[in-house]
Design brief:
This protein is α+β, with helices and mostly antiparallel strands. The protein has helices spanning 3-29, 71-98, 108-122, 129-190, 196-210, 270-306, 355-362, 374-414, 418-453; strands spanning 39-45, 49-50, 55-56, 60-67, 215-220, 223-228, 233-236, 239-240, 244-247, 253-256, 320-321, 334-335. It has two domains: 3-68 and 417-453, no CATH class; 76-402, no CATH class. The radius of gyration is 38 Å and the shape is rod-shaped.
Length: 454
């Protein structure tokens, strides 16, 4: 090997070690950068030169910078992120709903008990107008409690409509940002480059998108293809497809794909999926239970009331009014009479009779068609709301723990270790210094040869 050949080999080594130093320095600089994946310089032996009976090595070359990532782990993180965001959205919404069923003295259960207590007091003096007025007031308070609870649920639902619109807007924005990165990544890989920086940016955006909705990620030669749960395309190559929103016949905000097809039922996870789950399933279920209780309680109480006689000796009339079916019963629950004399306490038409009060009080513990007494029926609704909230919180905790473990695994594989990078920095620096020393030595040798010739 000539001095010039040795000089070329040393120069290649110098450039390779310089590249390795640059990659290591970049890793250290990005130790706290979210989504950054450490890069590893890929060094390889240069092809040897073949002479007559032997081959001569030509040093080292820096082939590329390779990002250290686990694609399967990345996909798993995206999946758990979707589940966690969905559970968190449900938790946030259901915690608002739980406050509607908190026992505070003016809730449905408390007001229902107060109504029956006021009826019991009338037993001692059936003609007492003050006690009769107390029953009307208690009935009106119960109606207010039904109205407040129904309106509260409707208000939470309305707020979730706004959240659906906001989530869809963010999804579209992220899809628009991902599409051009696809093109950049495909171009870099076509040139044989790693494209680690672009892929890091892409993964950060995919993480944000996973927090919004359930999305399927397919790796292709042209980048990633993103679709929703039912296969609706969000991003294909360099093109993004915007979702739309529209108000449905049910008054709720629905999600449509770019062609106008309603895909609302197919959205299961992420903030959008969790929001839709509560809005379209959990809250309607609670509302139906509440309406059923209001309708069946009013019917049972009215039946007992109509079986007696008022202070005027007239047959009792309906005490409560509202829809005869469950729909809208809680929101329209009201007291039908305003005159306390119309309360049917008598069983025989005489003013001093209290025989029908027993029948009115019996409604408190009698089973409604739904299978429970009024108080137990309300307790079942409270229990259902509590269980839904508790399940969402448990799911949030479980997925948060799982997500933390997965991110820890990712950090162990792709994250930057200051200790490891510091060691690499010393190693590459020493190699760089050695290559520089070789170049300096060869330069001195060349100078000595020239001096000898002269």
């Amino acid at each position: 090997m000539s001095l010039n050949t040795s000089l070329i080999v040393a120069m290649q080594s110098l450039l390779a070690e310089q590249g390795a130093l640059d990659a290591t320095t970049n890793n250290i600089a990005n130790v706290n950068t979210p989504g950054y994946t450490r890069e590893l310089p890929v060094l390889s032996e240069a092809p040897a030169t073949q002479y007559a009976n032997y081959s001569m090595g030509n040093g080292v070359v820096l082939e590329q910078f390779q990002s250290i990532r686990d694609q399967i782990l990345e996909q798993r993180i995206q999946q758990v992120t979707q589940q966690n965001a969905g559970a968190q959205a449900q938790t946030n919404a259901l915690q608002q709903v739980e406050t509607l069923f908190t026992s505070n003295g003016s809730d449905i259960g408390s007001e229902m008990s107060a109504l029956f207590n006021s009826i019991m007091q009338l037993q001692t003096d059936p003609a007492n107008m003050s006690l009769r007025q107390g029953i009307l007031s208690a009935g009106q308070n119960l109606a207010t409690a039904f109205h407040t609870t129904a309106a509260g649920i409707a208000q939470v639902q309305g707020g979730m409509n706004l959240q659906v619109t906001q989530d869809v807007g963010q999804i579209n924005q992220l899809a628009q940002e991902i599409a051009p990165l696809n093109v950049q990544l495909a171009n870099l890989k076509a040139l044989g480059q790693d494209g680690g920086t672009v892929e890091d940016q892409l993964n950060v955006l995919l993480g944000k998108l996973s927090g919004l909705t359930n999305v399927n990620v397919t790796q292709t030669e042209s980048g990633v293809t993103l679709t929703t749960g039912n296969g609706t395309a969000l991003v294909v190559g360099g093109q993004s497809f915007a979702l739309q929103t529209a108000t449905g016949s049910d008054g709720m905000t629905h999600v449509l794909d770019s062609s106008g097809t309603d895909i609302t039922p197919a959205i299961q996870n992420g903030d959008l999926g969790g929001t839709l789950q509560v809005r379209d399933t959990t809250l309607p279920g609670l509302t139906n239970q509440l309406n059923t209780l209001a309708s069946q309680f009013a019917s049972a109480f009215n039946t007992a009331h109509e079986g007696g006689f008022d202070l005027n000796g007239q047959a009792g009339v309906a005490f409560f009014s509202g829809p005869s079916t469950g729909s809208g019963s809680a929101a329209n629950f009201s007291v039908a009479i305003t005159d306390p004399a119309l309360i049917a306490a008598s069983s025989d038409g005489s003013a001093g009779s209290n025989g029908n009060i027993t029948n009115l009080i019996a409604v408190q513990n009698a089973k409604l068609p739904a299978g429970s007494s009024p108080i137990d029926g309300y307790a079942n609704i409270v229990f259902a709301a509590g269980v839904a909230s508790a399940n969402a919180q448990a799911q949030t905790s479980a997925t948060s723990m799982s997500l933390q473990q997965l991110n820890d695994q990712r950090s162990a594989i792709s994250g930057v270790s200051i200790n490891e990078e510091s060691t690499n920095l010393i190693r590459y620096q020493q190699a760089f210094a050695a290559a520089a020393k070789v170049i300096s030595t060869i330069d001195q040798l060349n100078a000595d040869v020239l001096n000898m010739i002269s």
